[in-house]
């Protein structure tokens, strides 16, 4: 029974993550606008994903417990490029990409660097969610922000809590997923709240 639950959580997370950012990317492309999307939030999220993936690779954790992260990073990069493009500054993404690529090689140089980065990545990811929340609170408009994307992110955090408990038991990772679950739910409800407000205003 435990093996079946683990298998379901791993593969359902992978399946959901394969399409996680697609509703958001689709909404941005359809509107030809990145309105409602916080660039700082997106950049921080990408940094958090990158550190998390490098940490898992460094400690050689089971592949199925983090296989979705390369997919999420690719989707975030695509969304980032769309956001820069529709803000009229696609070349502005280049310095950030250079930093992300360089950090991939720097992080595993010393154990203390990767451990410190992992602990900081939780704060980075929290900052990412708060940047998006702050943007929503400020504009009171969810614009092209996809509530489906954020609710799917909450689901993947819930499944990863289960898989972490059942496999590595890594407390740092477990804490990260619990915090991310709460914040993803918070962003989802905020997006829905401002979407209803916008509909009423119309």
Short description:
By secondary structure, this protein is an all-alpha fold.
Number of helices: 8
Radius of gyration, in Å, reads 17 Å
- Give the beta-strand count: 0
The 3D shape can be described as globular
Q: What is the string of SSEs from the N terminus onward?
A: HHHHHHHH
Integer average pLDDT: 88
Strand content range? under 5%
Q: How far apart are the first and last residues' alpha carbons, in Å? A: 51 Å
- Helix proportion of residues, in percent? over 70%
Q: Which blocks of ≥5 consecutive residues have pLDDT under 50? A: none
Profile the largest sheet.
none
Q: Name the structural class.
A: mainly alpha
Characterization of this structure:
The protein is mainly α and 202 residues long. Helix content is 79%, strand content 0%. It is built from eight helices and no strands.
